[in-house]
Each structure stands twice: as C-alpha cells, then as structure tokens.
Amino acid sequence: MPAPFELAQKRELGYEPSQVDQLIATARAQFADERKSLITAAELRKTEFDLVRGGYAIAAVDAAIDRLDDALASIEIAAVLRHHGRDIVDKVKSDATALLFGRIERPARKRFSGTSWLLRGYSKRQVDVLVELIDLHLTSGSQLNIEQFRRVIFKAKRRGYNEAQVDAFVDKTIELLQLEKNS
Q: Is residue 165 within 8 Å of residue 124, measured between CB atoms?
C-alpha cells in the first residue's frame, strides 16, 4: 500500500511515519463515529512528531493537519451550539478576546516573559508586529488569515520572548478565528 503522504528525500528530515499514521487513524476513527471524541482541535494543534530522515514530507502533513484542525473545530463549535446554545459560544469568544487583549495592552517588548541573555527566544520585534495585527482585527475588524498564524516563524534572538507563552497566544488566536468563522 502506498504511503498516505509523499516522503521526504532520503537525506531530508520528515515526520516519523508511524506517528503520523497513528494520528490519522485516530482521526478516522473519530469521524467514523460522531459519538467518539478521541482528539480535539486544541490537542491536535499541540501534536508534535519526531523528525527522521526520509519521513513524511513536512509540508504535506502540515497541510493535512490544518484541514483536520478546521474540521474538528467546526464540529466542536457546532456541537456546543447545538447542545448549549449561542450564549456559551459567545462567552468562549469573549473570554478568548479578553485573554488576547491582556497581552495586547502590555507595552511593546514587554508583552511576554523574556529569556535570559544565555537563552534564545522569539524575536520581540516580530512577535509584537503579529500582536499588532491581532489588535487591529479585534478593534477594527480587519481581516486575518488563519494561515498567517499557523505558519508563523519567528527568528530566535537572545533575550527574546518566551516561546511557550507566544505559542499559547498564537493558539488562542487560532481558536478565536475558528470561533468567528464557525459561529
């Protein structure tokens, strides 16, 4: 049986095929039975695969994971609307917006914890530019493309922002954009 994703060149790094195959099998099982909840969109976004030479091509898997993330988010939001009503979805959107504003309102270069001079973190300047885009969206309704956030790559800098905090902020932004799209 052919591989479900194209393979990286033998000397190039790609995702560990067995890990990707297991995730895809889990997703298929979940979609086959709507009553199952084996993985959520939030859990999916946190999934990481080991890198191996000749593994599955990263771009192909990432694109499939993004489509899966959108499908799971859409199903989850529809279920909340069906079982709990619009008020709950609006509350989740409101909470996400308040959380994002908590970071946005901080002064530039101080929005997240920084790393020490020995460690590298995300470029404060680049992260702050992204935060300003989110602020524009929230305050003026400017359009944001969810792909901007899925594929964002920040330069590593000494005394940069804490990566885990920035990653959580980006994930919360993706959640909010999915809520806006599906509710």
A: no
- Residues 6 or more apart whose CB falls under 8 angstroms from that of 48 comprise none
User: Which phi and psi (to 5°) does residue 60 adopt?
Assistant: -65, -45
Report pLDDT for 36: 83
Closest among 18, 20, 2 to 58, alpha carbons compared: 20
The phi, psi pair for 102, rounded to 5°, reads -55, -35
- For the cut 80, the answer to whether the pLDDT of residue 34 exceeds it is no
Residues near 114 by beta carbon (within 8 Å), at least 6 away in sequence: 121, 124, 159, 160, 161, 162
The mean pLDDT value for 110-130 works out to 96
Helix pair 163-182, 58-84: axis angle to 10 deg: 60
pTM: 0.90
Q: pLDDT tens across 63-89, in order? A: 999 999 999 999 999 999 999 999 999
The alpha helices in 120-162, defined as continuous H runs, are: 124-140, 146-150
CA distance 156 to 154: 6
64 Cβ contact list (under 8 Å, min separation 6)? 5, 24
